[in-house]
Amino acid sequence: MDKNFDYDYVIIGSGFGGSVSALRLSEKGYKVLVIEKGRWFKDNDLPKTNWNLRKWLWFPKIFFFGIQNVAFFKHATILNGIGVGGGSLVYANTLPKPKTPFFNHGSWAKLADWESELEPFYETAWKMLGAVENPYLGESDKQFQKLAKDIGKENSFYPTKVSIYFGEKDVTVTDPYFKGEGPDRTGCVLCGSCMTGCRHNAKNTLDKNYLHLAQKKGAKIISEHEVIDVLPINKEDGSEGYTLTFKKTASLFGKKQSIKTKGVIFSGGVLGTIPLLLKLKRASLPNISARLGEMVRTNNEALIMNVSLDKDKDMSDGIAIGSMIELDENSHIEPVRYGNGSGFWRASAFPMVSEKNWFKRMIKLLILPFTDPIKWLKVFFVKDFAKSTSVILFMQHLDSTLKLKKGLLGMKSEIVKGETPSAFIPEAHDIAKKYSKQINGKSLVLSLETILGTPSTAHILGGAVMGENTEQGVIDKNNKVFAYENMFVCDGSFISANPGVNPALSITAIAERAMSKIPKKSEA
Ligand SMILES: Cc1cc2nc3c(=O)[nH]c(=O)nc-3n(C[C@H](O)[C@H](O)[C@H](O)COP(=O)(O)OP(=O)(O)OC[C@H]3O[C@@H](n4cnc5c(N)ncnc54)[C@H](O)[C@@H]3O)c2cc1C
Ligand code: SF4
Question: By the 8 A CB rule, do 405 and 411 touch?
Fold first, then answer.
């Protein structure tokens, strides 16, 4: 360890990219520090339902230090996870590999033969995250299977590959994944609560694999602290290291701390890394590419809540996402569920209306409840919203982009050119209408979609994409930031095309590849 530095690498954020980086750099002999702005949760600290807003939501201004952040932009409502383990704390464990078009589109397309080069890293990612095929189909999966049959897609229905330990229900065993080096695991009880955090020690969150092993190799993790500055020492390209400043999260008066590090990995997720880098570009890191904040993608996504009025259907039975249908060559759908009692989203739900034109949409919204008044009334007053609701998560690899930039009152979104994310994807609305009819219910969306036409996504990606040079991207094909030494972006911001499926596996695999390119400390 160079005596001028406190650490070889500091990793900003502990989600998928950050956790991979922490383990692989520690294994290579580097002294690593991970700084995470969210809390470090024990299983019992996680909320029982999403009505426990203080433990579920991340809204530090009013002292809500939970795992779920919701960010509102003009062109997208974005959901992301916060805490030690990042998005793995709230995610629905689903780990599909994208189809070929993902590897051949966007600013990274010509930089490598991605599909074949990443193949072994996808295998490693599945293994490390403990992915297996879901062995149990709950009610909404069975309904999806029926839907697939009805639309002639029987052969495109699959159980999901998920990062859950399916041992004997509620029985704890010594680590089944890492030859005893990992923590004890407990068999999944199929409670459907994965997205409010698993209180049963069955979900393979990052603190139970990558981060656990990284700590064993010497990595240090500081939680509830936020990185606010990264300043090159002596030379502007950072070749002599960086002074990194951080402070207690959400504290106005907390003392700032500074450390010296040879290298930095930005792993704050799109909503952490992009705002931080945009701020730093104005002062400490002015040579970052002008592409920063551009080519942000939403996975061309739609989230549609389908509420059933059949009392015998328990949609919350099973894991959060137990199955999927490949709808067509571009589109993919999954039924998503919350656990019993987690009905928070009812408070912000409006009927789904497909009209793109605002006036037509408002008229339709006013008329709609009168077309089937009793049913609409019942839908909004079902006893347990989570038990009655099966959310369709619709994703497409077709391209649509946004730009994130600094505004007067914080971050804002902007449309640059080309296709943009839409709240009215016809294929998504069509399948939701079919599905809600099948389950004797109605389709709802977040109110902002109906009122303002703002789409929602749990898969925000891009903003620091790969390119051949600084004119085309922010990082090179090995994730190194152009114009800076020993500085990398390793999180969803590097995703350079719409995967069209849940992205955490791809983030993990690409981060594994990036870390494999960094030499061992003894050889550096
Ligand atoms: C409800 C929900 C369900 C989902 N389900 C799935 C699923 O089933 N499958 C799937 O593939 N994906 C799913 N996702 C998406 C997945 O969670 C994200 O794509 C993934 O977590 C992104 O990983 P990342 O490496 O970019 O960073 P993240 O996981 O977003 O982690 C970044 C971390 O950095 C921290 N941070 C940010 N800024 C700073 C700073 N300045 N200083 C210190 N720390 C900082 C944050 O607090 C956060 O913990 C879901 C998302 C949500 C919200
Ligand atoms: S279904 Fe329940 S027990 Fe199983 S992983 Fe999800 S939260 Fe944990």
Answer: yes
